[in-house]
Structures are given as C-alpha cells and as structure tokens.
# Entry
Amino acid sequence: MKRKWTLLAFIFTIVTVLTGCEPLLVLDPKGPQAATTANVIWISIITMAVIVIVVIVMLTNMLLKYRASKQPDDYEPPHIKGNPIVEGIIVGVPILIVAFLSVVSVISTYQVEATPEGYEDQEPLVIYASSSNWKWHFSYPEQDIETVNYLFLPTNQAIEFRLYSHGTISSFWIPQLAGQKYAMADMVNTLHVVADVPGEYIGRNANFNGEGFAENKFNVTAMPQEEFDQWVDDIQATAEPITEEIFDELIEPGHLGQMTFTGTHLDFAPAPEGENGGHNHGSPADSDEDNSEQEQETGYNESDHHNH
# Structure
C-alpha cells in the first residue's frame, strides 16, 4: 500500500511540473525556416520512438518466450549456423534508417540556407547583426538605424541577416524564426529569415563565450510593415546619431540595455566582407596580384626569404 501511494505521488509530481513548463520554442515555429527545423525534429523523434518501441517489444517477447523456466532440465538449444533473413533485417534496417534521416537532413539544410519558398522574388531587408562581449548590435543600412539588444522586423518580409563578431565567436539564434548560425570576427555569414506571425520573440547567443554568456540575449518584435515603417520614422525623428567614440564604448566587454541610434557603425567600422573581408576568397591570380602589391609596398619578397 505504501509503495502504491509513493508511485501515485511521484506521477502526480511529474504531471504537475510538466504542465507548468513552457513549450519548447523550437517546436513552436513562427516562420517557414523554423517550421522546417521543427518538422525535422519531429521526424527524428518519431523515427527514434518507433525504433525504441520495436526493440522493447521484441526484447520483452524474447524474454518471455525463451526464458529458462519454460524449458525441460535436459534441453539443449540447437546449433544454428545463421539465418539470412534475420541477418538481412539486422543489417538492412539500420542502413535504411540512416539513409532516410540523411536525405531528410540534406534536403532541410538546403531549404533553411536558401530564401524561404514564396519569397524568392522579394528584395530582402538586409540587417547586419554583430556581436560583442556580451551584447548584439543590429545595423539597418537601408533605414540608417542601429539598435542594441533588440530587433524590430516587418512580417511577411524576407530578411537577410549578415552575421559577424567584434570579438569572440557567437552563435545567432532566434528559436521561433530560424536555426542558429555562427558570427565570427573575420568573415560574414548570412541567415535568411521570415516572420509570418506578429509577436514578441527571444533571441540569444547559443555559443558559450565567457562569463557574460548567460545574459547575452536580445528581444525580437515582429510587426506589420506599416508599423515597422512608423517605427523607422519615429527613430529618425528622435534618436541620437551613433559616433565612432560611442561605438568604441559600446563594444567594451559588459552588458547593456536596449539602445537606439540613427546612422550605423558600418560607416566607420565596416563589416568584414568584400574588400574588408578577413579571408581572401579570390582567384589565385588575385592572390598573386595582392602579393605583388604587398612586395612593392614592403620591399619583401618570399623567394628572397627562402634563398636566405
């Protein structure tokens, strides 16, 4: 009787705790890219659940059917060299499962990396999202606005985030809108997003980068295009301009609240792309030309170095 009440109390506690938990944000998508990710997660969960259930049922059947108590004392199991059907199932089913999940992963990866379906012909709104310890800076070059630790997005509009970092590697993630992607110091990564439901969402850094990591979050507000345009007009009429001195203070390690400026830091601290990129992704001819120019400026020749 005591065990019964203990078990009931345990079940009641689990049910109470689970009903008080918020839903997993990745399984509550508010955009097509996040919906693709959520679908892949559900497919994986269902596939693994089927595997676990089948294995448990087979194991239970084996334990009950072939347990020692059912056999006579002088029973000797027959010598079996092998069963092609059983061996084929043992080898073939895992191969099919891995192949299926691989195909799903590849297709979904291409989908989330591209502009969402139905928005291919729409000119995307470009937003530069750059991180510093431990805050996020959002530059709207078309609107000539910069915000710190918060984002305003128009709904049903293709968004192209261009990600990079002013310090350590961060990972840009808005669970209900898109998967995470790295922001690094010497290159720009792109992330395509569409918010098709107005609302308030949470974004965060998903890559541990020091003592301030836990609070490295930002707020995201998705709103109709008319409200977004009104917000832009209000900022242009009221916000102070960002300067190089102010920006140098902003990127110092530490936490900040939400801030808004007119202009962007891209004017005096451009993103690491194009001619400002940290990596040389050009052709070998371009590399040779760059090396030649560097030799003329410095008087240094690599072949002379090796000769010495």
Summary: Residues 17-21, 281-308 have pLDDT under 50 and may be disordered.
